[in-house]
Amino acid sequence: MTLVQIRPGSTHATPAGGTVADTMDTAGPQVCDDMTVEVALSVMASARTGHLLVCDDSGRCTGLVTRSRLAVVRDGSAYSDRVQLRDILGDRGPFISPVTTMAEAGHMMRYSDVDALPVVDEHGSALGVFALAR
């Protein structure tokens, strides 16, 4: 079964300080890790987003995939139409807590070389996405 949940995103301005909870976007599209790459790209296109939060069967966030990452996988020589998101996620994470400071989140993003991080609660459920402004 493939789960897709779409929630409206926030559009507020980012303050200079504070916590991730003050500036994160709501979770947005969440999909199950058994979704194929092609379907995920289609969901991204219809939701007009550049990323999807990926969850396992129990609803725990397992990662975040981007349009560019999925395009690289799709264009790779080992690609088949059966490749699922769980096949390309690898290790769980990185994730941040809603109480993480903006400075800590920025440091983690630079260290991890990512433009967006899933924000999760103490149970691993996705609360939102903290992304760099473009």
Automatic annotation (TrEMBL):
Domain CBS: from-to ranges: 24-80
Gene3D superfamilies: CBS-domain (3.10.580.10)
Keywords: CBS domain
Region called Disordered, residue ranges: 1-21
InterPro entries assigned: CBS_dom, CBS_dom_sf, Diverse_CBS-Domain
Protein name, entry field: CBS domain-containing protein
Species name: Streptomyces durocortorensis
Lineage: Bacteria, Bacillati, Actinomycetota, Actinomycetes, Kitasatosporales
